Amino acid sequence: MTKSILLVGVGGQGTILASKLLTTGLMEAGFDVKMSEIHGMSQRGGSVSSQVRYGEKVESPVIELGGADILVSFEKMEALRYLNFLKPDGKVVVNDYEINSMPILSGKAEYPINAVEVLKRKAATVVIHAAQEAEKLGNSKVMNIILLGTIIKAMGLEEIDWEKILRDNVKENFVDINLTALETGKSLV
């Protein structure tokens, strides 16, 4: 049975790196994996989404509307934007974090003040504070690895050798903090 994971965020949050690490781990575990990514103005703080599908045989990299087992959002407004991709019994992991988009910064739109409440009404939702957790670890850039840890735990993928994946794909100086961030993320769901 194919599982579908949708990661969404804003350019610069490390969404694509988290997706690539997830894909690498799944492939090394022997799954057929397909990944697709969309960088909508990602360099300018625009919306970024990455779809990872895995199983015995995956036919398509694309998650259809209502097809995601889990939606992991690095920024809470992005969770609302992609909520219609979630299965009726799917789960949401949302980072309680705000990044104002250009329409909001320019005054053409307002940030939804009750994003988390809306998510909780519509789906099984776990709210995490990855930015605060990353700050506690001393490096705000590991927020994405904390969120990767939530996926690993929520999808039951702990048996994969994530330490090896990180050692093989992260600069040596940052391996230890990333391993700690991964464990932090797993403890949050």
TrEMBL record:
Residue ranges of domain Pyruvate/ketoisovalerate oxidoreductase catalytic in the record: 11-185
UniProt cross-references to Pfam families, sorted A to Z: POR
Keywords from the named record: Oxidoreductase, Pyruvate
GO function terms (MF aspect): oxidoreductase activity, acting on the aldehyde or oxo group of donors
Domain of life: Bacteria
PANTHER family tied to this protein: INDOLEPYRUVATE OXIDOREDUCTASE SUBUNIT IORB
Protein name: Indolepyruvate ferredoxin oxidoreductase beta subunit
Species of the source: Sedimentibacter saalensis
